[in-house]
Amino acid sequence: MPVRISLTFFNKVIFIIIVIILFFIWWTNYNLINEQNNDFLKAAVLLKVSVQNEPRSELNRLAESEADTTPTDNDVTTLDFQLGEDDFLEANPAKSVRYFVYNKKCKIPYADPFSHEALAVYTPAKLKLCTNESDLIELNYDRNTQHYKLHINENFVRKVKSLKCNYREITRGTKERGDFHSIIQSPVYFKQNQSLPRHISAIIVSCHDAFNASNMVQQDAFQLVQLHKKSKRLARNPLERRPSVILLGLDSISRVNFQRTMPKTAKFVSQPGWVEMVGYNKVADNTLPNLLAVLTGHRPHELHEHCDISSYGCLDELPWIWKQYKRSGYMTATGEDITRTSLFTLGLSGFIKVPTDYYLRPLLVAIEKALRTYRRFGYDYCIGRRLSFAYVYDFCAQFTSIFVQDLDQPVFGFFWSCTFTHDFYFAASSLDEKFNAYMQKFERQQLFEKAIVILFSDHGSRYGDLMDLSDSFLEERLPMLHIYLPPWFRKTYSTYTESLYTNHNRLCSNYDLHNTLRHFLQLNATTKAHLPPLKNCPSSQSLLHTLPEDRGCEDACIEEHWCTCNEFINHPHDGEIYYVGKLVVYHMNRWMLLHNYNRKCQRLALMNMDKAEVKVLREENEKQTLYGSIVTYRLCFRTFPEVGQFRSTVRYNRDIHEIENLNVPAISRLNSYHNNSLCINDRIAKKFCFCYPEWKKFDDYMRYWQNLKITTKANLEI
């Protein structure tokens, strides 16, 4: 009897365990099916919203300009819609989807500058001063005589028994190497309030012990904006008045990171007269092609019609926008805060002739060698007693003070800085107060009463911790763009002003900004037809003309890989995804072979797939559809040797198992490649290059790759 009871109890326990296991299996599969259905239905909702012919009126509300630096509902278009049983299997509360841009052709999702994941990696940097000493020498401009004078700080002199001071003129080098070489002339000793000759454009000032010249007390350097033309323009009729245009550029600052790291400056540019273009989308990977589109209206390969841009003398022949301003009677100036890897010299030959009326580069080339430097954030942070950045903005302040404030003459200025912002995505936080102080200085000089000012960037962060965030795709592709119109312009050209405000949350690109710079010179072009279109991007237009409400990336000449309009959903890392990833790496290796960089750089291999997304709509016969054979994937993957992180947008043909029209140079590198690619100079190849290690002997695999020459696809295996 006891045995039978124990067996019965045992059977019951076994039965209960089996029931629990079966229930667990059922529950797991039920959740998995629900998850898949939810993903599918979310895609269906996106499609439903995309293809509606008559979107609900509340879905098309336009955002007003921001009143504060913190994100508000006015930052974006807010889409509120109910998800019914037909949309989701389960009843859900009302959803709120936020967008920077929303129309039938383009939906750019909103990115929160102060999201939890962003703040988790955000580490503000502090500004470090280059010196704690007072200025011994001051450079003053006498507006009556229109001469610069050197003033010796007498309070400082009292601390020194005997002192002698001299200045050395800086001149640009010879024509052959003018952008790479500056000449420092012999010293000229001076006394208190010494006037400087008008031909001098830059100087180094040195003060030393009168009895011991090697005992240097202080050195400093100054740029001089000398006045060569005294004509003062008096424009009583506003319609005859030509606006000054000042471009202030900060490298690698997205709209989102600008709000996060530079709140004081962001608040300054939210004042009346400023318009933020939240739909501004870059057109290329790095600085050069994005700025060429703004400053010339062309991509690098399109400029080959003029000349090979890397060849000696080519830069002088290009159609720079400042040439148009100069022909229109404007005074022009350019300046940037680095020399060795500057916009016009990294992989390029620089200018033979000085490109603008006033040019900062000769000063920086000279003082980088003559004065002590301090490196921070990957660049020469301090040169002598000043921030490298400060030389650019002091130069801008001189230039605008003399011509805009004093003489009321029209000017065009391009001032670019990257020392704080290029390599360290949060270093801009240490620049914020300093930059805001310069903006307030410009305000005191009445620059904003008279000039159009554009604060912009080339792209967002391209590598580092920000690339690990969920909105990294937007971070990289949406640079900041703020445009200021002075009061007289807003009053005189109210239609243009209204159009600019209307465009603030519509998709626009570098080509539209270039057209806007052209438009400032042709303010009588009241319609799009009056402003000749760009041949390479005929659908681009001035931001002073109202952009079409339904505008997509093709209309703004933005390639698919850079386009933030398209809607993607997550895709599992299945066999097809890994196969496509291998195809992408194959094409990267092939590109390096075709350009002979295998002689310097190792072959890449796919290590892992970090993220895969698929475009909601497919293609068939060049039309978008749900069931086409061409699928667009967005892949984030890693390669070895070392670890290279990349992002690529790929059109994959499932019928023939091939990638279509992959633009290899457009593939994004998501982590820093500076130390990996020192063996080559090409801007594009550097992204894919891991130099052969000097410490390691070549094995047969390396030797085979280095000596390989490509003739057909058969030379490479996937």
Walk me through the structure.
The protein is of the alpha+beta class and 718 residues long. The chain contains 18 helices and 31 strands. A 7-stranded mixed β-sheet has the order 13-22-21-12-20-15-16, with helices on both faces. Strands 24, 25, 28, 29, 30 and 31 form a 6-stranded antiparallel β-sheet that branches. Strands 6, 7, 8, 10 and 11 form a 5-stranded antiparallel β-sheet that branches. Strand 28 and strand 29 (644-653) form a beta hairpin. Helix 6 runs parallel beside helix 16. The longest helix has 50 residues, at 2-51. The protein is globular, with a radius of gyration of 30 Å. Residues 1-5 and 32-95 have low confidence and may be disordered.
List its salient traits.
18 helices; 4 domains; Alkaline Phosphatase, subunit A; 31 strands; 7-stranded mixed sheet; 6-stranded antiparallel sheet; alpha+beta; disordered N terminus; 28% helix; 718 residues
